[in-house]
Amino acid sequence: MATDVPGSGPGPVDGLPPLVDHHCHGVLRHDPGPGTFARYLTESDRPPAAGTTFFDTQTGFAVRRWCPPLLGLPAHCPPAHYLARRRELGPDETRRRLLRATGIGTYLLDTGLPGELTGPAETAAAGGGTGHEIVRLETLAEHTAAAVRNPDDLPDALALAVQDAARTAVAFKTVVAYRHGLALSPEPPGTDAVHAAARAWSAAGTSRLTDPVLLRHLIRLAVATGRPLQLHTGFGDPDLRLDHADPALLTGFIRATAGTDLVLLHCYPYHRQAAYLAAVFPHVYADIGLTLTHTGPRAAAVLAEFLELAPFGKLLFSTDAHGLPELYVVGSALFRTALAGVLGAWTTAGAWSEEDARRVGAMIAAENAQRVYGLP
Questions:
Q1: How many Cβ atoms from other residues are within 10 Å of residue 212's Cβ?
Q2: Residue ranges in 206-260 assigned as alpha helix (H)
Q3: Parallel, antiparallel, or unpaired: how do β-strands 315-316 and 130-136 relate?
Q4: 248: confidence class by pLDDT, cuts 50, 70, 90
Q5: Which of 216, 185, 214, 184 is nearest to 197 (CA)?
Q6: Is 3 helix (H, G, I), strand (E, B) or coil?
Q7: 198 in a structural domain
Q8: 282 Cβ contact partners less than 8 Å away, ≥ 6 residues apart
Q9: Quick check: is 2 in a domain?
Q10: Per the structure, how many domains does the chain have?
Q11: Which residue, 25, 81, 339, 340, could crosslink 322 as a Cys pair with Cβ 3.0–4.6 Å?
């Protein structure tokens, strides 16, 4: 690995393969103003408290640590200087410089978020890699419902939409944690219940899908395709209730869906529960993305907690970057530095061999995702 990739260097991260970012989002095509930029540094969808800024967070400090040198500025420069340099370069050059420095070779991009964001091919081209699509089920269902006149036709239309998406998508994703919570009934809903729910959704006149019966039906359609299913768990924006996003709530559903790989996204602060589920169920995997970005220099401690129980072939790297190419840089740099710190300490103590540390590092960085998603 080139030494100019942020977070690279000797030890367990030396010689890592190009990273597979198995869960990420597009980035803005325009140059965001200072307020917009700062809002992407937090999971909150509210403005900061009076007299504060989201730059004063672990994510904000990480951006100022890793990104300015890639744009020709000193590390830790003031936010105003950094944003001025960004404007000077323009969004295309900024995106290219930052993404090319991540060491990411493959982007699996969730296309379900609104806004003027780059898609899989455009994001990957800027980063010099390859891109693939992850289809967000709720967005797919809402677009499908908008084109259906008779609600009794919706169940069949959803089935066709999911089957069609499965032809090209590498995976599906659900945000049922936001729409209902993860305490899902493990049994698929009956046909009559699905039709009744479709009629009720149509009569309600809302485009947002929150009905638990339709959500379960949609998830079951995705599971039936055999494509991996990503599930948001753990922290996110205030639209969810954190206690309803504990992955342990999925236990019944997990037992009922053996045969289709389930990937638990983000997980924090329930990452130990996610590690347990990955340890005891062969088809369950855990994602370390987003968590490391938001924990900054404490990322090594959180990564070590993931590794306490999860089998090493069950953990996958991602950035969950959204909106800002800086978040790709931070996610990949913090992953490398955390991995080097944790595995380096274990090899120094004699608990692990250096060969095993490098092998496990490569598994988490890329090889596990290549296997789960059937990538080259």
A1: 16
A2: 212-225, 251-255
A3: unpaired
A4: very high
A5: 214
A6: coil
A7: yes
A8: 258
A9: no
A10: 1
A11: 25
CA distance 339 to 166: 33
- The secondary structure of 105-155 as a DSSP string is EEEEEE--S-SSB--HHHHHHHHTSEEEEEEEHHHHHHHHHHT-SSGGGHH
Q: Assess contact for 16 and 336: CB atoms under 8 A.
A: yes
Query: Contact 188/222 with Cβ under 8 angstroms?
Result: no
Q: Is the pLDDT of residue 43 over 90?
A: yes
pLDDT at 8: 81
The Cα–Cα gap between 26 and 56 comes to: 24
- Output the domain CATH number for residue 342: 3.20.20.140
Residue type at 237?
Answer: D
Instruction: Identify the CA nearest to 87 among candidates 102, 71, 99.
Output: 71
Nearest CA to 20 among 127, 153, 138, 165? 127
Q: In what order do the strands lie in the sheet with 229-233?
A: 19-24, 104-110, 130-136, 171-174, 229-233, 262-266, 284-287, 315-316
What CA–CA distance (Å, rounded) separates 151 from 157? Answer: 10
Do 59 and 296 form a contact (C-beta atoms < 8 A)?
Answer: yes
| Residue 143 to residues 139, 168, 209, 262, 304, Cα–Cα distance (Å) | 6, 18, 10, 24, 41
Nearest to 305 by CA among 275, 265, 281, 332: 275
Tens of pLDDT along 121-152?
A: 999 999 999 999 999 999 999 999 999 999 99
Q: How far is CA 296 from CA 1, 61, 148, in A?
A: 22, 8, 46
The span from the CA of 76 to the CA of 68, in Å, is 7
353: containing domain: 19-373
In whole angstroms, give the CA distance from residue 37 to residue 25: 16
Tell me if 4 is assigned to some domain. no
Residue 78 included in any domain: yes
Q: Between the CA of residue 317 and those of 22, 288, 334, 361, what are the distances in Å?
A: 7, 6, 11, 10
